[in-house]
Amino acid sequence: MRNVLAIFVALIAGVMVYPMLASGQSTKETNLFSAAANDDVATIGTLLSKGVDIDARDGDGRTALLVATHGNKVDAARALIDAGADVNAKDNIHDSPYLYAGARGHLEILMMTLAHGADLKSTNRYGGTALIPAAERGHVETVRTLIEAGVDVDHVNNLGWTALLEAIILGEGGNAHRQIVDLLVKAGANVNLADRDGVTPLQHARQRGYKQIEAILVAASAR
Fold it and tell me: What is the pTM of this model?
């Protein structure tokens, strides 16, 4: 009853509450997740100085760093990464701070993960690298950053799609996706790598009436 009352009072006060989590989760570890969710750097520092496990997991397998990344809490993420948090630690659905930051376009956190050992070959639950969902969602600077970091531009996910195919098939054909297609082509993406049905990027672009993207592909000898 006291825990329920405390949560209710905190909600009334406008504070984000992180619920008690996995079996055996200590109060200090729970507080670390709450601090990460609230971008509370001071509390993070205090808890870590007391020996709290920086890579403890919640009921969904998330670390405090992944919680911070979910909310794009840059200061909390920086504090945790600087203290040694694992940027590649995956949760129960195979998201890691690195993969999630890339997929969601959280560029500042992404760059921190890249500077602290991000595994460029790691994949999400769809078998895709961070580059593929970034391309799909139109995160231009994220795509640029991942290409420069060395992510494989021709990686094929479980759906049989590359970043180039996803940018066309699941994109909107607008300026952001046009820029992404241009970036991928200039980075050496195979413009003729077809999907599982044998449909090429150029054919997908033509089917959707994406004239500017079509022009980029044709200039790169796409068929």
Answer: 0.89
The secondary structure element, H or E, covering residue 42 is helix 41-49
Q: How high is the mean pLDDT in each 10-residue block of the chain (223 residues)?
A: 43 44 69 98 98 97 98 98 98 98 98 98 98 98 98 98 98 98 98 98 98 98 98
3-class secondary-structure state, position 149: helix
Q: Which residues of 161-171 are buried (b: 16+ CB within 10 A; e: fewer)?
A: bbbbbbbbbbb
Say if CB 28 and CB 35 are below 8 A apart: no
- The length of the chain is 223
Cα–Cα distance, 2 to 180 (Å, whole number): 52
Q: Report d(CA 133, CA 8) in Å as an integer.
A: 37
Thinking of the domain 120-223, which architecture would CATH place it in? Answer: Alpha Horseshoe (1.25)
Give the homologous superfamily in CATH for domain 1-90: Ankyrin repeat-containing domain (1.25.40.20)
